[in-house]
Automatic annotation (TrEMBL):
PANTHER family: GLUCAN 1,3-BETA-GLUCOSIDASE, GLUCAN ENDO-1,3-BETA-GLUCOSIDASE BTGC. GO terms for biological process: cell wall organization; polysaccharide catabolic process. This is glucan endo-1,3-beta-D-glucosidase. One of its GO terms (cellular component) is fungal-type cell wall. Glucanases play a role in cell expansion during growth, in cell-cell fusion during mating, and in spore release during sporulation. This enzyme may be involved in beta-glucan degradation. Active on laminarin and lichenan. It is a single-pass type II membrane protein. It is found in: Cell membrane; Secreted, Cell wall. InterPro entries: Beta-glucan_modifiers, GH, Glyco_hydro_17. GO terms for molecular function: glucan endo-1,3-beta-D-glucosidase activity. It comes from Mucor saturninus. It comes from the Eukaryota. It catalyses: Hydrolysis of (1->3)-beta-D-glucosidic linkages in (1->3)-beta-D-glucans.
Length: 289
C-alpha cells in the first residue's frame, strides 16, 4: 500500500506536469458578490478556464459561498485551487474562518494548492503585521490536520515584513506595473526586478507572483497606457520570462470584471462573454517566446 508521503509526492509531480502543459500557471477569478454565480455558472467558467490553466485562485470563501462552489467546480473540472480569505478591518476574517471551517469539515481539500489569508492587507493598512501573522497561524492550526495544505498571504512586493515571511509556507507577491505609471516597454523588466527583491528577502522560500496584469481599456496612468496592444505585449513578454525562469505566475485576471469601476474592469484574458480576446491565440499563449 502506498504511504501518504508517496501519494502526496506523486500528486505534486502530476500537478507540476499539468501546469507545465498549460499556458498559465494560474488565473485569478473574481465574482460580483452582489450578483452571485450559481454552481453551474462557476462550473462553466472553470471549464472554459481549464483550456488555459491548471490552477484558479479565488479571493473569498464566504462571499457568495464561493469556497464551496469553487471546490465542487474545480474538482469536477480537474483544476487546482487557491482558496482566498478576504481580510480587512472588519470582522471579515472571523466570517471567512467560519466558512473555511465548514468547508474543511467535509475533508475535500485534495486539490487545494494553498489557503491565502488576506489579499494586500498590509498595502491597505488593515492590520498590523503581528495581527496578520496571528490569523495565518490560526488557519494553519485548522488545516494542518487535513494533510499538506499550505498557508500563505498575498501582498504587494514592498510590504512584506520578516515576521510575515517567517509565518507563510511560501511567498505570494503582487505587482501591477500599470499602477506604477511605467511605459509598457519597461514593464516586464520592472516586474522581474520586483520579483527578485522579494526573492532576496524570502529566506529561501518559494516566491510566486500572485497578481500582475495590464488593462486593455481605460485611463492612462502617467506613462502606462491601456490598450489591446500593450496588454498583449505585457502578457506575452511576462509569460515568456516567467516560463523561462520557471516562476509561477497567476495572471490578473481570468475574465473582465464589468462590475468594477473604470480601468479595473479591463484586465481580463477573456472578455465578459468568456471569449478569448481577439489579440490572442491559444498557440501564442502556449508559446509566448
Amino acid at each position: 500500500m502506498l504511504n501518504l508521503s508517496l501519494i502526496l509526492s506523486i500528486a505534486s509531480l502530476v500537478s507540476s506536469t499539468l501546469a507545465a502543459s498549460s499556458a498559465f500557471y494560474g488565473l485569478n477569478y473574481g465574482v460580483n458578490m452582489y450578483a452571485c454565480p450559481t454552481l453551474e455558472d462557476v462550473k462553466r467558467d472553470f471549464r472554459i478556464l481549464s483550456q488555459y490553466t491548471n490552477t484558479v485562485r479565488i479571493y473569498s470563501v464566504k462571499d457568495c459561498n464561493l469556497g464551496e462552489l469553487a471546490l465542487k467546480a474545480s474538482q469536477e473540472t480537474k483544476l487546482r485551487l487557491y482558496l482566498g480569505m478576504w481580510v480587512d478591518k472588519s470582522d471579515s476574517f472571523d466570517r471567512e474562518f467560519s466558512a473555511l471551517k465548514t468547508i474543511a469539515e467535509s475533508n475535500r481539500f485534495y486539490n487545494v494548492e494553498a489557503i491565502i489569508v488576506g489579499s494586500e492587507v498590509m498595502y491597505r493598512g488593515d492590520l498590523e503585521p503581528n495581527e496578520l501573522v496571528d490569523r495565518i497561524e490560526k488557519v494553519k492550526s485548522l488545516v494542518r490536520p487535513l494533510g499538506q495544505t499550505k498557508v500563505t498571504t498575498a501582498d504587494v512586493y514592498y510590504k512584506f515584513t520578516p515576521g510575515i515571511i517567517n509565518a507563510v509556507d511560501f511567498v505570494m507577491m503582487n505587482a501591477f506595473i500599470y499602477w506604477e505609471g511605467i511605459n509598457v516597454d519597461q514593464a516586464t523588466d520592472t516586474l522581474m526586478a520586483h520579483y527578485q527583491s522579494v526573492k532576496d528577502m524570502s529566506n529561501g522560500k518559494l516566491v510566486r507572483i500572485s497578481e500582475t496584469g495590464w488593462p486593455d481599456q481605460g485611463d492612462q496612468n502617467m506613462a502606462s497606457i491601456p490598450s489591446s496592444e500593450n496588454q498583449k505585449n505585457f502578457l506575452l513578454q511576462t509569460l515568456c520570462r516567467t516560463k523561462q525562469q520557471e516562476i509561477d505566475m497567476i495572471w490578473f485576471s481570468a475574465i473582465d470584471e464589468g462590475y468594477k469601476p473604470g480601468v479595473e474592469s479591463h484586465f481580463g484574458l477573456l472578455d465578459s462573454n468568456r471569449q478569448l480576446k481577439k489579440d490572442y491565440t491559444y498557440e501564442k499563449l502556449m508559446n509566448p517566446c
